[in-house]
Amino acid sequence: MTAAEPGTTPEQPLDLLGVGIGPANLSLAALAHPLPDLTTACFERRPAFHWHPGLLIDGTTLQVPFLADLVTLVDPTSEWSFLNYLRHTERLFPFYFAERFHSPRAEYDAYCRWVSERLPGLRFRHEVDAVRWNPEPAVFEVDVTGPDDEGAADTRVYARHLAIGIGTAPHVPEPLRSLARVATSPVVHSADYLDHRERLLAAEHVTVVGSGQSGAEIFLDLLRHRPPGRERLHWLARTPAFAPMEYSKLGLEHFTPDYTRYFHALPEPVRDQLVARQWQLHKAIDHDTLAAIHDELYRRSVGGGWPDAVLTPGVAVRTAGRVGTTRIELHLDHAEQGERSRLVTDAVVLATGYRERPLAPLLAALDPRRDAAGRPVVDARYRLALAPEITGTVFVQNAERHTHGVGAPDLGLIAHRSATILNTLTGEERYPLPERSAFTTFGLRRDTGERRGPREPRVPAQLKGASLRSF
User: Fold this and answer.
1) How far apart are CA 98 and CA 152, in angstroms?
2) Could you give the CA distance from residue 317 to residue 326 in angstroms, rounded to a whole number?
3) 213-224 and 287-300 helices cross at what angle (nearest 10)?
4) Ranges 131-145, 150-164, 224-238, 400-414: which has the least confidence
5) HSE of 74, CA atoms in CB hemisphere, 13 A
6) What is the 3 state secondary structure string of 58-86?
7) What is the pLDDT of residues 224-243, one digit of tens each?
8) How far apart are CA 453 and CA 429, in angstroms?
């Protein structure tokens, strides 16, 4: 940043500084771009945008329609839409004839990278190290480490408000952490699958652990590329079944702003119970992937034999250790049978999901308020609860599942969340948002949370004075 740029002095701060450039903050930056009175910048420690590069397996698609891009669901006219990306890359007609509603996963990554390379105010290879509040000019002081070759090794940036979008990190279960830490270990997380794919395909026996979409896609990819009759694959899951995703149209209404408002207004213990029970809404497997796995297994049984693949749900890995120098022994518990067993394998792929990166290390100096479980308190408009003397706002993105429900990480809600943040930040309805987004009425009343306006909730006229029997 040069001395003339906003953010270089406390007297000329940025209006909004984003930490992290994943899809969430990229959406926020794209929707902020046409607002001329708003100065923004986002910082990211990685050298460029990449969206789950280790899982861009050939043939995999998004589990949301292409309309769930960075902007379309709140501004279909935006220059940063997926359709505009197709137009600029001269692929709009091929997309039209392909009749795709769900885009290839690699194409979503390419689209986001196209936006990130053209959108101003995005600074890669810049890591945010610390955040403090300076009460005298009423701004956040943000310490940033940039690349030495740009002469910006240590920089301080000033901003009135922050948007934290640092995303999630791969989760490795405790029994396997010591093995996964060793670079040469045959234990890898699914996030790094493609980097290790050739080694996994060459392994004598491979075990996939995890019952979600990533586990299913990796198992299918390994199955398709191993010799018939010599597949030598295990697929283990803690869930009681390799369950299909809840993908009915009314079921999908759990990923609407209506449900988010309803969920946020519930008591904290109720929210925690709901998130645990709703795993099939977001942690299960796409129907087409399950069908493809069964089709591949069936095809390999046509000659009269069974493929050498074992699929076992209801199993937990209790402990794990090395056998010799190259093999892994997994100690397994089967909850329903109450039995224990051992499995020796040559490689393990952990499709065990992701966890939100903790905000505490970055925001320690701000000391945000916490709930009974030690998690940050986040209001309906995605603002952290801070001490009253901090008059700036810290918004969070994809760190609020405990307060906003299973839709928090969903790509279909990122544009709505970004618009909510910008409306709140500017105090105006820069992006009009729908009063209602679901046919389902969650709860016995609809006024269970904050509505679309930047300041106060608005109740639809047709609901004012309505009695319960009206529904």
Assistant:
1) 46
2) 19
3) 30
4) 150-164
5) 29
6) CCCECCCCCCCCCCCCCCCCCCCCHHHHH
7) 999 999 999 999 999 999 99
8) 6
